Task: structure prediction
Amino acid sequence: MKSFTERAITIIENIPNGKVMTYGQIAKYAGSPRGARQVVRILHSMSGKFQLPWHRVINSKGEIGFQDEVQFKRQKTFLESEGVFVNNRGKIDLEYYQYHPEVPPEEYE
DNA sequence: AACATGACGGACA
DNA sequence: GTGTCCGCCATGT
Result:
């Protein structure tokens, strides 16, 4: 069994183009239902070192989490380039774009 | 070991 | 819809 961090990274790497997942959802699949903050940490520390599709990770309300305007716009642009519609407040239609892995957590060694 | 950090989540008013 | 508050927990110092 890999660490929470490793499993979370694996999950993030497997989010399909044009789909999104929430922090809490990723934490849940990685085996820690209330580990959303760890996912945040991972993106902070790993997004620069690994080539993770960090832009496909949003908060539970279906919005981009960044407060920083520049970063916010960058993520919005990334998502729109993949065909994901994002309104001006950063809101995304989870019903339509959220990815639901069919592989259970056990499969993520 | 104690403390701070973090792009969060959920419950509530 | 908004804002506040508290719980969460791996990691870094």
About this structure: The CA atoms of residues 22 and 58 of chain A lie 5 Å apart. Residues 22-24, 27, 34-41, 43-44, 47, 54, 57-61, 64-68, 71-72, 75 of chain A lie near DNA strand B (CB under 10 Å from a C1').
